[in-house]
Amino acid sequence: MARQLLLALALLAAIHCACAAKSVLVLLQSGTTADKYSGFIDGLGAAGFAVEVKGHKDTGLKLREYGTWLYDDLVLFAPKAEGFGGSIDQQTILDFVDSGHNVLLAVNSEVSEAMRNLAAEFGVDLDDRGTKLFDHFSYATTADGKHDHNLVASYDLADAPVIVGGPYKDPVLFRGLAATVPADAELATVVLSAPATSYSHDPRKSMLEPPSLMVGAAASLVTAVQARNNARMVVAGSTDMFSNDLAGSANRAFCLTLALWAFQERGVLVASNLRHHLLGSDEQPAGYRVNDEVEFAVDVMEVTGGVAKPYKVDDLQVEFVMLNPYIRLPLQHDGQGVFSLRFMVPDVYGVFKYVVDYSRRGYSYIKLTHQVPVRPFKHNEYERFLVCAYPYYASALSVMLAFFSLSFFFLYHK
């Protein structure tokens, strides 16, 4: 009987895992181009995703049905698309992101205005249609041995291993369209920059003067964006970098790692079990008294590929806030994912909040708040004798002694 119960539980666990597989919709310029990206798509399948590949003009396309999203993630490899089939449009994709889902967008030099507008919604300004990235120093050769100055070889990866993986011995190869990202963009990270010797230009036009914007490291080749709701978007200026033709370099590993990050299989932080209590007690009180000694704790785990492990950093802070932070201190971790801090409640009463606001490049944001009131001492909680008040006690006693001495002397002596 016990064995049957164990088998039933194992079956239920297997069914749960199968049902929990994330679904990815891949929209291509044409359904016949699926073989071009078969290595990348197979890599997603090997990572545990349920991948569905369709052409962007398929009449049965839909992301949502009866208010329920049908997919967890969306891949757009249709750079020339001016629209989509079925019920998908730009607003639907933006709603998809607003609901916490993820998008991987790749374009090329033939990018349509619709795709440029979608990338702009993600905070990435793609260069004009027809322009290409050139580099006469950092370039690669094609399979037939020809020098291709449009096939740019870049080692300029962001210092964010959780997004880009690596380190890689070979460069990442890029053939396509450059982009710019505002310097003050808080949510965007340029994960692959152009080499210093590269520039963007439309080869059909004459170059009367050197380009001023899309030059060198100012040109973004791949940009990662994480919205405030932790939805993730990746905008790549090259569809070829995901293709089988360039899989022999570092592209295969880089593109797959980038996709895993975009689909929240890497760099996901889960904070839970926020708690606080007075020292010497395990119960969480409804409020504090000024100058109480308390302990605050929260559990933070890093989830990679569905596996949770303790998060270990020294820059996670907690604030004790009433309008302004009265206390801001780093949390100490025990190596098991528990971050805690002991401190004394400030000598100010009012309504305070615990605030944990953590953002680190490549990792999902943590935003936790918990409200707790702080009251003053009650009338019967004050100490009756204070060490700091001894001079006042002595002055009162001296006045009393002087009064009795003067009275005794006045009454009993002439």
Q: Please state the structural category.
A: alpha+beta
Helix content: 10-25%
Annotated CATH architecture of the largest domain: 3-Layer(aba) Sandwich
Mean pLDDT: 90
For CATH, the homologous superfamily of the largest domain is named as Class I glutamine amidotransferase (GATase) domain
Strand content: 25-35%
What is the number of domains? 3
Order of neighbouring strands in the sheet with most strands:
2-1-5-6-16-15-13
Taking the sheet with the most strands, its summary is:
7 strands, mixed
What oligomeric state best describes the polypeptide chains here?
single chain
CA radius of gyration is 32 Å
CATH fold name of the largest domain: Rossmann fold
Low-confidence stretches: 1-19
The end-to-end distance, rounded to whole angstroms, is: 110 Å
Q: Got a strand count?
A: 26
Outline type = elongated
Count of discrete alpha- or pi-helical segments spanning 4 or more residues: 7
CATH class of the largest domain: Alpha Beta
Organism: Tetrabaena socialis
InterPro entries: DDOST_48_kDa_subunit, OST48_MD, OST48_N
Main location: endoplasmic reticulum
Family: Belongs to the DDOST 48 kDa subunit family.
